[in-house]
Design goal:
The chain has helices spanning 2-14, 20-31, 36-43, 52-76, 80-84, 103-116, 131-134, 168-177, 218-233, 286-291, 308-316, 323-326, 329-332; strands at residues 121-122, 128-130, 154-155, 158-163, 182-191, 203-213, 239-246, 249-258, 275-284, 300-307. The protein is α+β, with helices and mostly antiparallel strands. It is rod-shaped, with a radius of gyration of 38 Å. The protein binds 3,4-dihydroxyphenylalanine.
């Protein structure tokens, strides 16, 4: 039997096929159920026990050689159609996984788009600022609590270097360098020394707006914000301006919109009041204009500032601000895909 195995090995090694039929012939002769390999395996049970080990080894080697030879012969005569059978070669190589826009980017871009349509431009300023641009030029009294170490991240060695606490600082930079008319929005990141919770974060985003020209009135401010609210939250949205205080605007107001969740009927988002606060605004204080080199006898203007997180939470009913910063893919995938 050993002799038979080595004979077969020689024959198989030397076998040549010239067409597919001969390959099939090879398979039938050696690999099929009634082929020579099977016959040898059948004979194996009669091999005396003490020789089984040696025979087994040889037999397995033969089997391997035959199989490899068969695979090789087959590959020689395989046509392109055989290879492609059942495969749609027009499909993309791998399914492409699309990323998605971050919800804050979606809302930020939407806000910018709304203001671009009425002639505003976009400007940006630095995140690392100085006291003048964040506080002093904006008419913050020296003892104002917003300057307090509790709220502002200062650089220890130089208290004049700080992380901006609001994007109102960009107003100052723009007014210092541009002559009116100015019509611009300033998106950006701001920083406050706050304990992180579901409702507050030490880093968040704001969009500031500024409009300076001759004869700009509070009516212009109100109409601009009404247009914004309707574009952002739907045509049925109503606005309400409540008197407020900011050092850099006079008069100042806070704007509420009719609750976009319940339409004003009352729900837990608006705490059953029907209204939700979304921004601060007012007429730019003449002191601020003068601080920035703009003649307050000729020019007037309005400003407003809103939190992007707040508006995004409202729009998508997101209950925890921390979700924006955790980059949990299960959260991010729920938003508009990037195409
Ligand atoms: N800077 C204010 C804040 O961070 C928001 C703000 C209020 C901006 C009134 C304005 C404004 O331009 O007129 O809370």
């Amino acid at each position: 039997m050993l002799q038979k195995i080595s004979q077969l090995l020689e024959i198989v090694k030397g076998f040549e096929a010239h067409n597919k039929e001969q390959v099939e012939q090879f398979r039938l002769q050696y690999l099929s159920k009634k082929g020579e390999l099977s016959q040898l395996f059948d004979m194996f049970k009669d091999v005396p026990n003490d020789q089984k080990k040696e025979f087994g080894k040889q037999l397995n080697f033969l089997k391997q050689v035959i199989q490899e030879k068969y695979d090789f012969l087959q590959s020689q005569f395989q046509s392109t159609e055989d290879v492609l059978q059942g495969i749609d070669i027009t499909l993309p190589e791998n399914p492409i996984r699309l990323g998605s826009n971050h919800p804050l980017s979606i809302v930020k871009n939407r806000i910018i788009e709304i203001f671009l349509k009425i002639g505003f431009v976009v400007s940006e300023g630095p995140e690392i600022e100085d006291d003048w641009h964040v506080f002093t030029a904006l008419n913050f009294p020296l003892e104002h609590p917003a300057r307090d170490m509790q709220d502002t991240f200062f650089i220890e060695k130089n208290p004049d270097v700080l992380l901006r606490t609001h994007t109102s600082s960009v107003q100052v930079r723009v007014m210092e360098h541009q002559k009116p008319p100015i019509r611009a929005v300033f998106p950006g990141r701001v920083f406050r020394n706050e304990a992180i919770s579901a409702r507050a974060h030490c880093i968040f985003h704001q969009i500031e707006g500024l409009y300076i020209d001759t004869n700009v009135s509070f009516a212009d401010l109100k109409q601009t914000l009404l247009y914004f609210a309707k574009e952002m939250f739907g045509v049925d949205t109503q606005i309400r301006l409540r008197p407020s205080y900011f050092p850099f605007t006079e008069p100042s107001a806070e704007m509420d919109i009719s609750c976009s969740i319940c339409g004003g009927k009352g729900c837990n988002v608006c705490k059953y009041s029907g209204w939700v606060e979304i921004l601060g605004c007012g007429m730019v204080d003449p002191n601020v204009l003068e601080n920035c080199g703009i003649d307050s006898k000729i020019y007037t203007g309005f400003a407003f500032g809103m939190g992007v997180e707040r508006i995004t939470m409202l729009k998508y009913q997101i209950k925890d601000i921390r979700l924006f910063f955790e980059n949990d893919i299960r959260f991010l995938r729920q938003f508009e895909a990037v195409l």
